[in-house]
């Protein structure tokens, strides 16, 4: 199993948490897509979903711990019935909200007003678009996904997203097609701007280049092809110590759909909870404090090459 790889001894350097600035919440694993690189193994048949009592703890924790940023993910977080109410409550508290959006959700039945809602609330949209070429995107994410993604981006642009001076932030996310490191983020971002601008009239704020993590669905594919150990070796070989100070787990707590706490979204998928507080409700009593972060071989995915995190390249 993939989990066992994370529990074996690792040469990854020890890490300790710093100031907590972001609460990243996975609202559930249901998604309208089933992408080949998905480290959550999300899809249309998944039923895991955060209950109302746990959801209600989130604004309370944001206030109690004075957390400035709420990062909502899934699955497709927008499919959770409490998504919009949670966004509104967090925004009323002055918390910055990020929606990790797959773009095709914007054209799903019943979601016709979703883009306008995100704009009205000033939500930062981090949108998955693993390539600017239709064939590559459809191969990774499903037939027709590229066209629907372009339509979604154009809809967001019309609402002001990515437009200079609008204050509505639209970032795109790139993932490699296979077991390779992302190319340099600045050059890739320039290519995205040129191709999407010239061919589709699309503008955006930043491109975030993320490495594929060797867990869940992507790891299964690697094991099937016999490339799992080779990919781990690639990550280890390209580890850069300079990236350690900026990895996301040092300033973030990840919350699963049950309210359990993890050092990052990847540890969440590997079933590796943080070492002190066990549940969201614990954060109402005390913060996570300066504590040891649980690390494993998969962590080299965040420090290899230019580094990778929820905010893109680290160097």
Instruction: Give the amount of beta strand, in percent.
Output: 5-15%
Our count of domains comes out at 1
- Give the CATH class: Alpha Beta
User: Unreliable runs, pLDDT <50, ≥5 residues?
Assistant: 1-7
What is the rounded Rg?
Answer: 19 Å
The CATH topology comes to: TIM Barrel
Across the major sheet, the strand order is 7-6-5-4-3-2-8-9
Count of β-strands: 10
Summarize the amount of helix as a percent range.
25-40%
- SSE succession: HEEHEHEHEHHEHEHHEEHEH
- Structural category: alpha/beta
**Any idea what the shape is?**
globular
The total of helices stands at 11
Q: What is the overall pLDDT average?
A: 91
Distance between the termini: 32 Å
CATH architecture: Alpha-Beta Barrel
Biggest pleated-sheet summary: 8 strands, mixed
Describe this structure in a few short sentences.
With 315 residues, the chain is an alpha/beta fold. It is built from eleven helices and ten strands. The chain has one domain: Alpha-Beta Barrel (TIM Barrel), CATH 3.20.20.
């Amino acid at each position: 199993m993939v989990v066992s790889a994370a529990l074996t001894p690792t040469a990854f350097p020890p890490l300790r948490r710093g100031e907590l600035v972001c609460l990243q919440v996975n609202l559930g694993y249901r998604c309208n897509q089933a992408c080949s690189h998905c480290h959550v193994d999300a899809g249309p048949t998944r039923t895991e979903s955060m209950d109302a009592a746990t959801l209600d703890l989130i604004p309370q924790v944001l206030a109690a711990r004075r957390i400035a940023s709420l990062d909502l993910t899934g699955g497709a977080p927008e499919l959770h019935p409490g998504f919009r109410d949670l966004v509104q409550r967090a925004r009323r508290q002055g918390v910055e909200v990020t929606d990790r959006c797959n773009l095709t959700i914007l054209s799903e039945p019943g979601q016709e007003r979703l883009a306008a809602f995100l704009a009205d609330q000033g939500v930062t949209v981090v949108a998955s678009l693993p390539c600017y070429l239709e064939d590559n995107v459809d191969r990774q994410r499903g037939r027709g996904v590229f066209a629907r993604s372009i339509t979604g981006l154009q809809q967001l642009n019309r609402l002001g997203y990515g437009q200079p001076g609008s204050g509505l932030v639209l970032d795109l996310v790139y993932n490699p097609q296979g077991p390779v490191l992302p190319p340099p983020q600045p050059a890739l971002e320039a290519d995205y701007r040129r191709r999407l601008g010239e061919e589709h009239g699309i503008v955006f704020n930043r491109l975030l280049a993320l490495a594929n993590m060797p867990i869940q669905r992507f790891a299964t594919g690697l094991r099937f092809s016999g490339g799992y150990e080779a990919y781990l070796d690639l990550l280890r070989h390209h580890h850069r110590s300079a990236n350690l100070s900026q990895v996301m787990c040092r300033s973030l707590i990840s919350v699963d759909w049950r309210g359990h706490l993890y050092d990052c979204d990847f540890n969440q998928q590997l079933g590796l909870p943080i070492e002190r507080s066990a549940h969201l409700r614990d954060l109402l009593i005390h913060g996570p404090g300066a504590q040891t972060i649980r690390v494993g071989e998969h962590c080299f995915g965040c420090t290899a090459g230019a580094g990778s995190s929820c905010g893109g390249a680290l160097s």
